[in-house]
Amino acid sequence: MEFDYFSWIILPILIFISRLGDVTMATLRHIFISKGFKKIVPILGFFEVLIWLVAMRQVFSHLDNVACFIAWAAGFSAGTYLGMYIEERLAMGAQIIRIISNEDISVLIEALKARNQGVTIVDGQGAMGPVKLIFTIVKRTDKAEVIDIINTLTPNAFYSIEDVKGSEHGVFTDDGKTSAVGRLFTIRKGK
Q1: What are phi and psi of 28, to 5 degrees?
Q2: Hey, how many other C-beta atoms are within 10 angstroms of the C-beta on 114?
Q3: CA 38 centroid distance within chain
Q4: CA distance 150 to 144
C-alpha cells in the first residue's frame, strides 16, 4: 500500500495555512475593535469566517487523520502570533503615557516640547511625598522615541502606557513617518 501524500502532507499544510489566515484575521479584528476601527472590522470578519468554514469542513471530512488536528492547532497558534506581530508593525493609533516623578522634570518637559509633543502637568501626592504627573498622548510610531527620552532624562520616573481609543485637539509630532502599510514591510533596526 502506497503512502497517501495528499491526506498526510498536503491537506494538513492547507489546513495549517487556512487556520493561520483566519486566526490572523481574527486577532487583528479583535485588536481593531478595541481601537475603534469600524470600517475594516466587518471585512476582516467576513473573510475570517469564510476561511474558517473551508478549513473546518476539511477537518470534519478527515476525522481519522491526526495530522489534520495537529495542523489545525499549529495554525491557530501561529495565526495568533502573526496577528499580534502584524498589529505591532502597523502601529496604528495613539497611546497615553503617564509619567510620575518626584524629581525635577523641567528638562524632560522641555525635551518633549522640543519635539512638539503635547504635555499636561499636574501636581500630585504620592506615597513618598509630592510628585508631578505628566500626561502625553503619543502616536504609537513615536512611543519608543518618547520612552527613550523619559529613560534618559528621568531614569527613576514611573510611567505607564495605555491605548487611546480616540483623541482630538492635541499637540502631536508630525514626523512624516511611513504609512501603516509601509511600516508593515519596513525592516526594523535593532529588533
Answers
A1: -65, -40
A2: 9
A3: 17
A4: 10
pLDDT score at 191:
43
Architecture of domain 94-184: 2-Layer Sandwich (3.30)
Q: Which residues of the chain have pLDDT under 70?
A: 166-191
Distance between CA atoms of 25 and 9, rounded to whole angstroms?
25
Model pLDDT for residues 55-110, shown as the tens digit of each residue: 999 889 988 999 999 999 999 999 999 999 998 888 888 899 999 999 999 999 99
Enter the C-alpha cell of residue 2: 502506497
Question: Hey, what's the cell of 41?
Answer: 472590522
pTM of the model: 0.70
Angular region, 91: left φ>0, alpha ψ -120 to 50, beta rest: left
Predicted pLDDT of residue 129: 94
Longest dimension (CA), the chain: 80
In the 3-class helix/strand/coil scheme, how is 55-76 assigned residue by residue? HHHHHHHCCCCHHHHHHHHHHH
The pairing of strands 158-164 and 94-101 is: antiparallel
